């Protein structure tokens, strides 16, 4: 696997023409959360078979039910979470789940609580739905490890926020929350009768030494106030296939969903459902090998930064393939991504897009062959050196 992934070249990736490699022509693509490794062979086979049979109609109920079962089985074997398959509902994507959660499970008109830095659409979607956002900055410890500020969270609920977005594993900071951390968060939510949209799209991407605990699985209280969304789309690289899962964990939400959920479920694509079934039932081995590679890459990234860009702050992510790089000591101002795009030819996500707490940071997607990672970090170091001697 290592060799095979290492051998993928920039030329091959550019020719394939994915967003990561075509949006900024000629640059190294490290911005969007996609991987350069294709997907699991079992998924490709399942899709080929579906194409051969022209499985292009509206989503048949038995296929949707197979997906629900496959996702529930995955949650059971990988996370020890037992959920009735009927609680797992198809969606086009996780953001459709967020829209549904805001519209149907949050108090009408209430502000949305977004811990920041955050996945960028969390700061866009609520506003598009006419909601205010209360940003609650995470706090970084001395070791660069991020955690939730419970007092600030309490203040956000006290100020009228009702639904909080809890992203775990976290994009962009890479934290995988412990059970104890989530129990503490849940206490605050319960204090105010709040709700949680648990975005667990990165759940399969957790590194050794950490474990994904589904938020809704923790207690009757979290099951009662959470709505969970996940998908095979990040871990198996399938976002263009448009399929995700909304996981409901209490009777009241199931009843609401049965009345309002049909149109959101209608967005799931049939081939996406085929791919998600294959991922959850036959994609485990590929995923485990991938995680082994990414585990090595997150360590290598630390070595490369220490060698070439020692002033950049980096705490190895516990999950995801996203690195959250603190560039505030580089003297590049508030938009370091702009500098590295123009001067080093490396396209990353500017931290400020993740909220005010992200100013001075960049998000670097390291799901790329290691030679490309090395090349991009070296290019960034050279650009910085040129800038300093100019
Ligand atoms: C935390 C998080 N949520 C949601 C998404 C988007 O998922 P989807 O394409 O299923 O809407 C992403 C994509 O990177 C993500 O990182």
Question: How would you sum up this structure, described in words?
Answer:
The protein has 390 residues and is of the alpha/beta class. The chain has two domains: 2-39 and 284-389, Aspartate Aminotransferase, domain 1 (Alpha-Beta Complex), CATH 3.90.1150.10; 43-282, Type I PLP-dependent aspartate aminotransferase-like (Major domain) (Aspartate Aminotransferase, domain 2, 3-Layer(aba) Sandwich). Helix content is 44%, strand content 14%. It is built from 16 helices and 14 strands. The protein has a seven-stranded mixed sheet, sandwiched between helices. A hairpin with a 5-residue loop joins strand 5 and strand 6. Helix 4 (41-52) packs antiparallel against helix 13 (270-282) and helix 14 (284-308) runs parallel beside helix 16 (370-389). The termini are far apart. The model has no long low-confidence stretch (mean pLDDT 97). Pyridoxal-5'-phosphate binds at residues 33, 93-95, 119, 167, 171, 199, 201, 231, 233, 239, 244.
């Amino acid at each position: 696997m290592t060799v095979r992934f290492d051998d993928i070249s920039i030329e091959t990736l550019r020719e394939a023409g994915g967003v990561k490699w075509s949006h900024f022509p000629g640059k190294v693509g490290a911005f969007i959360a996609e991987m350069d490794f294709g997907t699991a062979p079992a998924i490709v086979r399942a899709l080929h078979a579906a194409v051969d049979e022209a499985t292009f109609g509206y989503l048949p109920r038995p296929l949707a039910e197979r997906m629900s079962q496959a996702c529930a089985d995955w949650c059971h074997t990988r996370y020890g979470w037992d959920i009735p398959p009927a609680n797992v509902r198809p969606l086009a994507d996780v953001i459709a789940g967020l829209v549904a959660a805001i519209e149907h499970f949050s108090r009408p008109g209430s502000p949305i609580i977004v811990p920041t830095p955050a996945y960028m659409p969390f700061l866009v979607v609520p506003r598009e739905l006419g909601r205010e956002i209360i940003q609650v900055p995470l706090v970084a410890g001395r070791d660069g490890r991020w955690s939730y500020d419970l007092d600030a969270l309490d203040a956000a609920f006290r100020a009228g926020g009702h639904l909080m977005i809890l992203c775990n594993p976290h994009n962009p900071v890479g934290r995988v929350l412990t059970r104890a951390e989530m129990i503490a968060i849940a206490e605050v939510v319960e204090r105010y009768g709040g709700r949680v949209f648990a975005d667990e799209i990165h759940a399969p991407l957790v590194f050794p030494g950490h474990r994904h605990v589904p938020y809704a699985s923790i207690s009757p209280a979290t099951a009662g106030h959470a709505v969970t969304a996940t998908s095979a789309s990040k871990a198996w690289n399938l976002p263009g296939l448009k399929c995700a899962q909304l996981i409901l964990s209490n009777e009241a939400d199931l009843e609401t969903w049965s009345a309002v959920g049909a149109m959101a479920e209608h967005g799931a694509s049939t081939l996406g459902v085929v791919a998600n079934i294959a991922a959850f039932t036959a994609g485990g081995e590929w995923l485990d090998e991938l995680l082994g590679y990414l585990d090595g890459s997150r360590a290598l990234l630390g070595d490369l930064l220490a060698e070439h860009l020692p002033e950049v702050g980096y705490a190895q992510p516990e999950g995801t393939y996203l690195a959250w790089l603190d560039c505030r000591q580089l003297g590049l101002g508030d938009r370091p991504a702009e500098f590295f795009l123009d001067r080093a030819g490396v396209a990353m996500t500017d931290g400020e897009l993740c909220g005010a707490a992200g100013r001075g940071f960049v998000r670097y997607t390291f799901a790329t062959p290691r030679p490309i990672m090395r090349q991009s970090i070296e290019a960034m170091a050279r650009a910085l050196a040129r800038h300093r001697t100019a």
